[in-house]
Design brief:
Shape: elongated
Helix content: 55-70%
Order of helices and strands: HHHHH
Low-confidence stretches: none
Number of strands: 0
Largest sheet: none
Oligomer: single chain
């Protein structure tokens, strides 16, 4: 994927403009508006509109969370496979000790720095943020959700 700047810790956060800047805000504003209407003009219809808009907002966020969960499962599988090919023993046998969040963060590390970074992660129980900060040769992931 052609992108202007190389990916790094500083710019790796992914924003989905349609979701983050349109769908989410429109649904939030609608929920607030419907609550205002229900308070000013309480009746079955206005209360039902609040329930409906809250349901729509919940649906939007739940749908987003489902896709993120599937992505995390795939990354976890992908990274375990990658680590099993890049790590020698005894580190290979310790792959199972890595947490989900550590595996997700390690996907940004280059193949060359993986062995040392995995060892440091396991020995110091690094958080995903610490792992990402420790990466010197960033391996971009432009295809995430």
């Amino acid at each position: 994927m052609a992108n202007a700047a190389p990916q790094s810790f500083a710019n790796h956060t992914r924003w989905d403009p349609l979701f983050h800047f349109f769908i989410g805000p429109v649904l939030m504003i609608t929920v607030i508006g419907m609550i205002v209407v229900a308070v000013r003009h309480p009746n079955v219809h206005s209360v039902w509109m609040v329930v409906l808009t809250v349901a729509l907002l919940s649906l939007a966020f739940k749908t987003r969370l489902y896709s993120l969960k599937v992505q995390t499962r795939l990354i976890r599988l992908e990274e375990r496979l990658r680590l099993s090919t890049l790590l020698g023993e005894p580190m290979r046998s310790r792959i199972g000790e890595l947490t989900e969040s550590q595996l997700v963060a390690l996907r940004f590390a280059s193949d060359e720095e993986i062995p040392a970074l995995v060892a440091e992660t396991l020995n110091r129980n690094l958080s995903n943020k610490d792992i990402k900060k420790a990466i010197t040769n960033w391996r971009a992931d432009w295809f995430r959700v």
